[in-house]
């Protein structure tokens, strides 16, 4: 069965083609949809890649020395608390394993 599609740019009818014979415009709805989905993926990827840094990272890179020191103290405190939590979790699982 032949698929006849009218080009939206120049108005010519094309038979079983993805691109217009006259002007070369994309006329396949399936390819247009795939192209749009791919563009949306790249836009979402770029937005996720450009996430702003969190508060502590902003403090660590601040111009003022006092703010940078505060940022490093908070960052180190967060790392120490995470290490203690990991040790407690390991200890609980080690005791449970017997």
Report on this structure.
61% of the residues lie in helices and 6% in strands. The protein is mostly helical and 98 residues long. The protein has two domains: 4-49, no CATH class; 55-97. It has a two-stranded antiparallel ribbon. It is elongated. The mean pLDDT is 89.
Summary tags:
98 residues; mainly alpha; 2 domains; two-stranded antiparallel sheet; 3 helices; 2 strands; 61% helix; elongated; transmembrane; membrane; Zinc ribbon protein; transmembrane helix
| Alpha-carbon distance between the two ends | 70 Å
Globular, elongated, flat, extended or rod-shaped: what is the shape? elongated
Helix content: 55-70%
Number of domains: 2
Count of DSSP-assigned helices: 3
Rg computed from alpha carbons, rounded to a whole number of angstroms? 29 Å
Q: Strand order, biggest sheet?
A: 1-2
Please write the string of helix (H) and strand (E) elements.
EEHHH
Strand-helix topology:
Layout: E1 4-6, E2 13-15, H1 29-49, H2 55-60, H3 65-97
Antiparallel strand pairs: 1-2
In short:
Keywords: Membrane, Transmembrane, Transmembrane helix. By secondary structure, the chain is mainly alpha-helical.
């Amino acid at each position: 069965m032949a698929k006849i599609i009218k080009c939206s740019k120049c108005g010519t009818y094309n038979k079983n083609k993805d691109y217009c014979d006259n002007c070369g415009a994309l006329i396949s709805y399936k390819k247009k949809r795939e192209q749009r989905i791919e563009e949306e993926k790249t836009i979402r990827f770029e937005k996720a890649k450009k996430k702003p840094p969190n508060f502590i990272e902003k403090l660590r890179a601040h111009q003022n020395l006092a703010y940078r020191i505060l940022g490093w103290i908070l960052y180190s405190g967060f790392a120490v608390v995470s290490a203690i939590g990991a040790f407690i979790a390991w200890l609980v699982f080690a005791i449970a394993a017997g």
